[in-house]
Amino acid sequence: MIKVEFYQKLAEVVNDPICRLEVLDFEANKMGDSIVMLLCSWLKDSPYIKVLNLSKNEITDKAVPSICTVLDQCTDLKGLYLHYNRILSSGGNMLAQSLRTNKFLEVFDISFNSIGAGVVTADIEKSMNVKDTVAKLWSDCFRFNQSLIHVDISHNNLRQLELETIAEGLRANHVILGLHLLGNEGEIDANGFMRQNEAITFGSIARS
Residue 159 maps to which CATH number? Predict the structure, then answer.
């Protein structure tokens, strides 16, 4: 496992005005929340980062506010990859709110997390409230964001009713060209309409 001192030293290099490092790929380093939070605090003012890959790093909702800070402040960031982490609906909601007003990010991959509310079952009323919040925030994200071109939210426990609400926002979006929904409870067609697949749960579209 790479020690925290390495990330600190790397951040110093990246933040050096002379440095033009644009791609940071930390995939599968078992960083965990603490290191990710520290790294984001060091990188939030980096002027040249275009791609940040934090996939497969055991990230939970705890580190998401720090990631959102990078999203908000790194105005050259074009690609953010978070697949195969442990981000749940709360963290997903924070990301949706940050992306709603983001004007720079073009590629966003949060596949194989659990940003949907499908796992909330103990309290029915709470579960419905969570589902409504998740759906509304992601719908608004896609409705108002005008920079995203490619989005992957595959395998995230998104249920049919959530996807129907999300589709309302997608119908107002004319920028996204590729949207991947594999492994959720339905698919959204090229016109932004949700269709439930009764045989298997999948979805992937290319839009123009």
Answer: 3.80.10.10
Domain extent, residue 132, equals 87-208
CA 198 vs CA 16, 136, 142, 184: distances in Å = 54, 24, 26, 12
Q: How far apart are CA 192 and CA 173, in angstroms?
A: 9
Q: What is the DSSP letter of 5?
A: H
pLDDT by position in tens, the chain (length 208): 788 899 999 999 888 888 889 999 999 999 999 999 999 999 988 888 999 999 999 999 999 999 999 999 999 999 999 999 999 999 999 999 999 999 999 999 999 999 997 655 555 566 667 779 999 999 999 999 999 999 999 999 998 889 989 999 999 999 999 999 989 988 776 665 667 655 333 333 444 3
**DSSP bridge partners of 180:** 152, 204
Q: How far is Cα 100 from Cα 22, in angstroms, rounded to an integer?
A: 24
In a domain, 82, yes or no: no
C-alpha 202: how far from its chain's center?
A: 19
